[in-house]
Amino acid sequence: MTVHTEGESNTSAQRRQWAARNDHAGAKALLRRDADAFLHQSLSSPCVSTIVKAQGIWIEDVAGRRYMDFHGNSVHHIGYSHPRLVAAIKRQLDDLTFAPRRFACEPAVELAEKLGELAPGNLGKVLFTTGGSDANEVALKLARAATGRFKTLSFWDAFHGAGFGASSVGGEATFRSGIAGPLLPGTEHVAPFHGYHCPYGQSTLEASGEACARMISYVLAKEGDFAAVIAEPMRATPVPPPPGFWKQVREACNRHGTLLIFDEIPTGLGKTGRFFAHEHDDVVPDIVVLGKALGGAILPIAAVIARRDLDVAGDYAIGHYTHEKNPVTARAALTTIAIIQEEGLTERGAQMGAAAMARLKAFGENNPHVGDVRGRGMMFGVEIVDDKDARTVAPERAERIYYRCLEQGLSFKISAGNVLTLSPPLIIGQAELDRALDIVEAAIKAETA
After folding, report:
1. In terms of DSSP bridges, do strands 151-155 and 226-231 run parallel, antiparallel, or are they unpaired?
2. What integer is the mean pLDDT of 36-57?
3. Ranges of each domain in the chain
4. How far apart are CA 119 and CA 125, in angstroms?
5. Is there a contact between 124 and 116 (Cβ–Cβ < 8 Å)?
6. What is the rounded CA–CA span in Å between residue 6 and residue 149?
7. Where residue 9 falls among pLDDT bands split at 50, 70, 90?
8. Looking at 232-326, which runs of residues are DSSP E strands?
9. pLDDT tens digits for 275-324?
10. For labelling, which of 46, 228, 257, 271 has a CA lying 20 to 30 Å from the CA of 73?
11. Using CA atoms, how far apart are residues 154 and 168, in angstroms rounded to an integer?
12. Pairing mode of beta strands 187-190, 226-231
């Protein structure tokens, strides 16, 4: 298990204290080897804990401690090691393990057809990559080819991957800083539909969203040569957009011949209570990108789904990945989608998520250190503040709460410095979800005391 909080230094006092309290000979040896073997980078290495098993909603470290995982890098919608998925992968390994790009294979074609059926509007042409960052870059290349333009507009504080192109359109400092020289040209940014470290009350969010939509419209009109707007339809931090925001952006894109790309890598596949997060906003993008959970928390695969009339780059290599049509990863994705659909996980997430959100909101109203509770489906954000009225952010307080929860067997991440970001698997049981919320509430109450 890699324990971290988004934007946190690898040498924070809280992390050192956690490591000291959880001393274990086997863990220390493995962590030492990890630190010696891997290039060090923010948010992953060096680690402060270990993992030896992942099953269902649980992860286990070398000392035998178990944690409900409410982070999972957004891959574990169906939980870890789902038996049906494991069996399907094993069968595929016995049948066909690899397909060169130029040879059609049944699992890859079936997956492309399935995604075309699920996607809205006229989205039906597909390309697979091995990760979400690559898929976003394919989408950007396709937008350039289709429009003859190269500029993009995206949000500050957004994340779209770690590649040079994905980092360029992304807006998180962690993925843009420390690299000598410029990133891609023409990658312009505006402030997001919510302010970073600002109050998230609904009236404020709506005002901020209106200002953001107007700015996007203004920039597209002023410059007139943008290939695409690329954004998460709902921030995974999480922050849902204000009502009507994406309709305004969609209309602006239509007016100026700009494509709209939705990055659904963390929010797609039912996590928000709809199969695609943008379904909440009644808007159809020109390109949608899926990833992370598509491989069922076992294998890496991502997908670009584009409008059929955008299939205009046949003479160029816009993706060209060795495992572009890998039958094993395609089988994993097909089985993951089938599990989500046949087990009713999207509907389950909507129902259980609504109840959990109501509980957290009721709790937050009476706690001086909860500034706001927000989210959709099985994605919850609890904003931790020092002063409820002023909404002054409290990163140190949030970190203390995080480690209290970790001590009680609940792992998640902190976003934007002070938002407890809880993203349980869609398969979680009601008793387990209740227990997790008990842990969170108790940890926040301890801060109040």
Report:
1. parallel
2. 89
3. 13-78+345-448, 83-342
4. 10
5. yes
6. 34
7. very low
8. 259-263, 287-290, 302-307
9. 999 999 999 999 999 999 999 999 999 999 999 999 999 999 999 899 99
10. 228
11. 9
12. unpaired
Which tokens in the block code for residue 98? Answer: 């690899």
Q: What is the 3-state secondary structure (H, E, C) of 184-238?
A: CCCEEEECCCCCCCCCCCHHHHHHHHHHHHHHHHHHHHHHCCEEEEEECCCECCC
Give yes or no for a contact between 437 and 424, defined as CB atoms under 8 angstroms apart: no
In the block, residue with structure tokens 């969010």:
205
And the tokens for 267? 């929010």
List the end-to-end C-alpha distance of the chain, in Å, as a whole number: 30
Which of 181-185, 199-203, 375-379, 401-405 is predicted least confidently?
Answer: 199-203
Report the CATH architecture of 83-342.
Answer: 3-Layer(aba) Sandwich (3.40)
Token pair recorded at residue 347: 């509907």
**Average pLDDT for the chain:** 92
Q: Is the pLDDT of residue 135 over 80?
A: yes
What pLDDT, on a 0 to 100 scale, did the predictor assign at position 17? 67
Residue 50's Cβ-side half-sphere holds a number of Cα atoms within 13 Å equal to 20
pLDDT at 294: 98
- pLDDT of the residue at 11: 41
pLDDT at 146 over 80: yes
| Other beta carbons less than 10 A from residue 409's beta carbon | 14
Average pLDDT over residues 338-348: 98
d(CA 422, CA 409): 14
> Are the CB atoms for 249 and 213 separated by under 8 Å?
yes
Peptide bond into 240 cis (omega under 30): no
Q: List for the chain the helix, strand, coil content (%; round to 5).
A: 45, 20, 40
Give the integer Cα–Cα distance in Å for 264 and 276.
7
Type of residue numbered 267: T
Question: What pLDDT is recorded for position 201?
Answer: 56
56: DSSP letter: B
Residues 6+ apart with CB under 8 A from 102: none
Q: Is the pLDDT of residue 370 over 60?
A: yes
Are domains 13-78+345-448 and 83-342 of this chain identical in fold?
A: no
Look up residue 352 and give its amino acid.
Answer: M
Assign 174 a pLDDT band (cuts: 50, 70, 90).
Answer: confident
Q: Cβ(411)–Cβ(69) under 8 Å? A: yes
CB atoms within 10 A of CB 287: 27
For domain 13-78+345-448, is the CATH number 3.90.1150.10?
A: yes
Task: Using the structure block, give the residue that is written with the tokens 């990055």.
Answer: 263
Indicate the angle between helix axes 345-365 and 327-342, nearest 10 degrees. Answer: 70
Q: Are 346 and 340 in contact (CB under 8 A)?
A: yes
